[in-house]
Amino acid sequence: MQIDGLRFMMVGGASGMGRATAERVAAGGGKVAILDREGSAGAEVAASLGGTFHVCNILDFEGTEAVVQEAVDALGGLDAAAITAGGGIAARTLSKDGPHDLDAFRGVIDLNLIGTFNLNRLQAWHMSKNEPNDDGERGVIINTASIAAFEGQIGQVAYTASKAAIAGMALVMARDLGSMGIRVNAIAPSLFDTGITAGIPEDFKDVLVKDAAFPKRMGHPYEYAMLATSIIENPMLNGGTIRLDAGQRFAPK
Ligand SMILES: NC(=O)c1ccc[n+]([C@@H]2O[C@H](COP(=O)([O-])OP(=O)(O)OC[C@H]3O[C@@H](n4cnc5c(N)ncnc54)[C@H](O)[C@@H]3O)[C@@H](O)[C@H]2O)c1
Q: Is 40 in the pocket of ligand 1 (CB under 6 A)?
């Protein structure tokens, strides 16, 4: 799909990798709708890109349906969507206080897995109404996993479960939606310099990326955006989870 003229929904677009992706799509001539939480910088980011902002908490599963509709109406349809809204907690399966809190585990699954799938099913529904392009494409969906989906560290059991599920869904959804010309991929970043990692002290960032092959640094949000727009543009990228990690493999801790 071409970026020029693309009708693009960026969930989590107020900050970090989502913001960089919205900026890159807008710079390429795409039309952008940003969904993000109340109190985020979503309105300012959208205004700077000539796009629209739609307040959305993806944990409000019923409310999200109406917000997605509102964003699609503003765009005049939906060709592509990406999701970076998400997050995690740090807790071991067992700690000195006892077993992992089950509600805390469920909360991470709700945010990353159910939140993502809820958006995907609605996004795919809107995309299915498009006239196919010359290659038969009606839409493309990009989800955000993590390299923790494959080698989660100590204390990441809930986060890894949710991100492994996002990675696992990519091929199944691509197969489900293939007959409609809708592609689904996930991006699995290593550590990226975004709002979520902003509180990490500089010297500790060096420790966190020491196992990367090259470059030994955190990723820049625009490097995520470069991959996201490649996925949009390249019809052969489908059903996969693409690592964006400078060759890093997480150690146990
Ligand atoms: N930054 C990293 O090192 C890294 C590495 C691997 C995976 N990830 C994944 O990337 C995503 C975070 O993106 P980022 O790193 O650009 O962080 P970020 O904090 O800069 O941006 C995330 C955006 O998502 C929004 N968001 C969070 N929860 C939301 C909710 N419930 N409803 C709506 N919007 C919500 C935030 O307001 C924020 O604007 C997460 O899914 C995270 O697991 C990040």
A: yes
Among 232, 235, 106, 243, CA closest to 187: 243
Is there an atom of ligand 1 within 6 Å of 139 CB? no
Rounded to the nearest whole angstrom, what is the distance from the C-alpha of residue 13 to the centroid of ligand 1? 9
Tell me which residue has its CA closest to atom 1 in ligand 1. Answer: 192
User: Rounded to the nearest whole angstrom, what is the distance from the C-alpha of residue 179 to the centroid of ligand 1?
Assistant: 31
CA distance readout (Å), 104 to 8, 59, 95, 155, 160: 32, 14, 14, 12, 14
CA of 14 to the centre of ligand 1 (A): 9
Quick: pLDDT tens for 124-170.
999 999 999 999 999 999 999 999 999 999 999 999 999 999 999 99
pLDDT tens, position by position, 35-51: 999 999 999 999 999 99
Tell whether pTM > 0.70: yes
Domains of the chain: 7-244 (3.40.50.720)
d(CA 211, CA 151): 13
